[in-house]
């Protein structure tokens, strides 16, 4: 905290912190009192280093009212006057330091209170974090247990599916083998039937040609026979007409 300036004599002087020293059982501090140490009040501040400022002030007042007879007396009176001013300044300074000490104690009390509140908040936060950590741990263990069960179940299903796949593959190979065998038998049967059909076609063609040749031969023989018979019949008719005196060309 910045200390104010106090006018002493004709010039302004900034109050500087007084050094800590002890004299004749009384103590003067250069800063705020520490914990457990009460601040100085104006009554305690009257004595610093064994000097009674009230006595000095009385002497100074007496010296100011009298008339010194020589230069030494004037110098002594001047010293007393300055001492009285210093005493006044010191009293103001001590009062200010007391206020500063009270403010420091109030701030310290507030800081301690805030620190306790923060410690309580930190404690609650740690408890909450501990609860959250415990809950997360429990959830993690539960999830891990569920995951283990699911993994085991999926593993069993995978084993069962592999067995079913192997069985299906074996059945598929058997079906393929049976299909190939059936296809081979079918191809063999078709080839045999085709050979038989080709042979039958050849036989039928041969039979047809033989039949046609036979019919042609029979037709040729019948034609010759019919021509011979028609010639004979024509000759007979011609002779018969000739017997009747008729010419066949005229008819």
UniProtKB/TrEMBL annotation:
InterPro entries: DRC12-like. Residues 8-17 have a biased composition (Basic and acidic residues). The keyword Cytoplasm applies. Keywords: Cell projection, Cilium, Coiled coil, Cytoplasm, Cytoskeleton, Flagellum. Residues 1-44 are annotated as: Disordered. It comes from the Eukaryota. Residues 151-210 form a coiled coil. Its main location: cytoplasm. It is found in: Cytoplasm, Cytoskeleton, Flagellum axoneme. Component of the nexin-dynein regulatory complex (N-DRC). Belongs to the DRC12 family. Component of the nexin-dynein regulatory complex (N-DRC), a key regulator of ciliary/flagellar motility which maintains the alignment and integrity of the distal axoneme and regulates microtubule sliding in motile axonemes. This is Dynein regulatory complex protein 12. It comes from Salvelinus namaycush (Lake trout). The lineage of its organism: Eukaryota, Metazoa, Chordata, Craniata, Vertebrata.
């Amino acid at each position: 905290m910045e200390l104010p300036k106090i006018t002493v004599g004709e010039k302004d002087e900034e109050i500087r912190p007084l050094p800590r020293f002890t004299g004749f059982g009384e103590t003067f501090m250069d800063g705020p009192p520490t914990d457990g140490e009460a601040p100085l009040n104006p009554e305690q501040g009257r004595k610093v280093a064994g000097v009674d400022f009230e006595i000095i002030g009385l002497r100074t007042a007496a010296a100011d009212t009298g008339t010194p007879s020589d230069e030494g007396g004037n110098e002594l009176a001047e010293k007393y006057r300055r001492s009285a001013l210093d005493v006044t300044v010191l009293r103001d300074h001590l009062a200010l330091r007391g206020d500063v000490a009270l403010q420091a104690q109030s701030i310290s009390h507030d800081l301690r209170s805030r620190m306790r509140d923060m410690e309580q908040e930190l404690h609650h936060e740690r408890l909450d974090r501990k609860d959250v950590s415990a809950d997360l741990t429990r959830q993690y263990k539960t999830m891990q247990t569920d995951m283990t069960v699911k993994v085991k179940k999926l593993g069993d299903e995978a084993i069962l599916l592999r067995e079913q796949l192997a069985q299906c593959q074996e059945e598929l190979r058997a079906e393929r083998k049976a299909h190939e065998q059936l296809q081979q038998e079918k191809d063999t049967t078709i080839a045999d039937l085709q050979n038989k059909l080709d042979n039958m076609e050849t036989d039928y063609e041969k039979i047809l040609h033989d039949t046609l040749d036979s019919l042609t031969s029979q037709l040729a023989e019948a034609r010759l026979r019919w021509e011979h018979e028609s010639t004979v019949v024509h000759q007979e008719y011609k002779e018969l007409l000739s017997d009747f005196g008729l010419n066949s060309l005229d008819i």
